[in-house]
Write a structure and sequence with these properties.
There is one protein chain. This protein is mainly α and about 120 residues long. Mean pLDDT is about 80; it is low at about 110-115. It has a single domain (about 5-110), classed as Orthogonal Bundle (Multidrug-efflux Transporter Regulator, Chain: A, Domain 2), CATH 1.10.1660. Helices cover about 65% and strands about 10% of the residues.
Length: about 120
């Protein structure tokens, strides 16, 4: 298990990490940031053309830093509702963007954040 996976589990542990572990962790964070940046760039270009951008469940989970199970719970609660394209769930980027910038979302993230 690497540092990133350990952090994602939510475990509250003390860890001794080597320089190699820290470099691997940094590389994972950079890759995740690149993914989010690519999604945002795709959306920005489509907004200029007036088209709605649709995101997959995995893309939304990465943007919101939650699991797909959390997205399912949000849908059941009416917090973030997906549309269906055949069998596939798709989320309007505009809805995700509103959620990410809402005060309620920010409060929940800071309340649930455990360093």
């Amino acid at each position: 298990m690497n540092l990133y996976e350990l952090i994602e589990t939510g475990a509250n542990v003390k860890v001794e990490a080597s320089a190699k572990d820290l470099v691997q962790f940094a590389e994972i964070l950079i890759e995740k940031a690149k993914e989010v940046h690519q999604i945002n760039n795709r959306y920005a270009s489509e907004v200029q053309s007036g088209e709605e951008r649709w995101l997959t469940t995995d893309e939304v989970a990465r943007l919101c830093h939650v699991s797909t199970t959390t997205l399912w719970a949000w849908e059941k609660a009416g917090y973030l509702v997906a549309s269906r394209l055949g069998r596939k769930k798709m989320y309007a980027f505009s809805d995700v963007d509103k959620l990410l910038h809402s005060n309620e979302f920010r409060k929940n993230v800071s309340k649930n954040y455990k360093p």
